[in-house]
Amino acid sequence: MQTAIGTDITIAAGFLQAGELVAIPTETVYGLAANALNPAAVAKIYAAKNRPSFNPLILHLANASQITDYAVVDEMSLKLAQKFMPGPLTLLLPKKDNVPDITTAGSNKVAVRVPDQPLTLSLLSRLSFPLAAPSANPSGYISPTNAHHVMDGLHGKIPYVLDGGNTKVGLESTICEVADNHIILHRAGSVTAEELSRFSGLEVVNATNSEAATQPTTPGQLKSHYAPHTPLFIGNIPQLLQEHAGKKIAVISLDTAYIGATNFKLAPDHQLSTAASQLFATLRNIDQSNFDLILSEIFPNEGIGIAINDRISRAQFILK
Ligand code: TXA
Ligand code: MG
After folding, report:
1. Which pTM value belongs to this model?
2. Mutate to test the pocket of ligand 1, among 57, 131, 190 (most ligand atoms within 8 A of CB)
3. What residues contact residue 138 under an 8 Å CB cut-off, 6+ apart?
4. What's the CA-to-centroid distance between 52 and ligand 2, angstroms?
């Protein structure tokens, strides 16, 4: 199959209506989209990504008022939707019957979000169906933040990549679920637990710590999920540099240069949001150069720094 890159939403809509896959830009990372209501189209997503069949997909909608078409919405989830959508927040809700089982991997819950990306929003508003879209990378590798990253992993497997340039946020959406008297955080993102708590007045509990998290743990929370091919270690950089002396080392930091390594400062402007937007592209970059290993600082654990630390800890080298 030939894969074209372009900015034509009419072409993108045509492929999607025909049950084909199209990679789409969002404000977080690129998604690999198909008609969420067409099981045969959704099956192509799992095949193209080599995604385990137990890992459910997020429904992407044109606006928050469509959520009730596909999910049962409680009052607090509705408030969160009105406040944070379009934007990098995904809500986990009880699903309605019109959402095929393959889209939610058999779960009776469905994840929904409204991406804040102009091209994709106009594409969605043209379609008569929502788009199921996981990140547009082969399963297990780093999420793509531009159209070239998508091509690196999926070239020849999909007909079209809708090119919206570099994504703004650079890390996948926050995933949360409103429970009886608290909110379960399934994945950290740029909408922080603190923001959710301040807005809702509810305690926000990490999925792994929550008693209410009885459903199978979110597969995106598998330990090694965003791993580069080059082994990555996290911690005190001078100490790690000493331990690994003699190797060809790439160091990822907020804005510090270390002697004895090639430095990749994610945010010369010191902003954590800049670091977040650069993290995945930088990991890909390093992976394509010949480094023996990657060392990463632990980032300030506040705001989007929490999501950055979550992603680098999942990218860590684990002996298999
Ligand atoms: O920012 C994002 O959310 C991006 C863009 C493309 O929208 N999408 C994304 O999709 O990161 P994906 O599939 O790579 O990660 C979605 C996560 C998965 O870990 C999946 O297990 C979880 O959401 N998820 C989706 N539906 C779920 C469900 N019904 N129950 C539990 N977890 C669910
Ligand atoms: Mg993913």
Report:
1. 0.95
2. 57
3. 49, 50, 153, 154
4. 11
pLDDT score, position 218 = 52
User: pLDDT digits over 87-114, tens only?
Assistant: 999 999 999 999 999 999 999 999 999 9
- CA 97 from centre of chain: 26
| CA atoms 78, 82, 86, 90: torsion sign | negative
Ligand 1 centroid to 134 CA: how many Å? 6
Distances from the Cα of 237 to the Cαs of 22, 245, 253, 262, 295, in angstroms?
40, 12, 9, 12, 7
pLDDT at 212 over 70: no
Tokens of 31: 């998604």
Sheet with 31-35: list strands edge to edge: 4-6, 160-162, 22-24, 31-35, 131-132, 58-60, 109-113, 89-94, 174-178, 182-187, 203-206
| Three-state DSSP state, 77 | helix
Residue 181 token pair: 């008297």
